[in-house]
Amino acid sequence: MTGQLDVSPLGELVVARLRGEPTTALLRSCQERVLGLAHGTRRDKVLYDATAMTAPPVQVALAQRELDEGLPATGLKRAIVVPDSRLAYLARLAFGDGDYRVFYNDPIAAMQWLHGPAGRD
Length: 121
Known about the structure:
By secondary structure, the protein is an alpha/beta fold. It is 41% helix and 29% strand.
């Protein structure tokens, strides 16, 4: 299944839902839409729902890391919800040292973490 993307506001969050196998172009589009919506609505918490995503090649995850490294500090707090350990590993590769946390099939815990104090684990 080709990758699909939906980015929309939900309360105080920006939610990015990824389905299928993402490409570098889809990740670039996701980042542009997330940053545009976050900036335009002054939201600084992002929930990435990757529970319906298929694991891409490692090169695609590393492309996300390059996209992040090419940005000035965004101040975004990000939670990534994944279905399995393979996607968790790729998410950690993709997002590097940023302010994020990976959650296994638990969007409620991800939202609670996002709404908690900054930097809290």
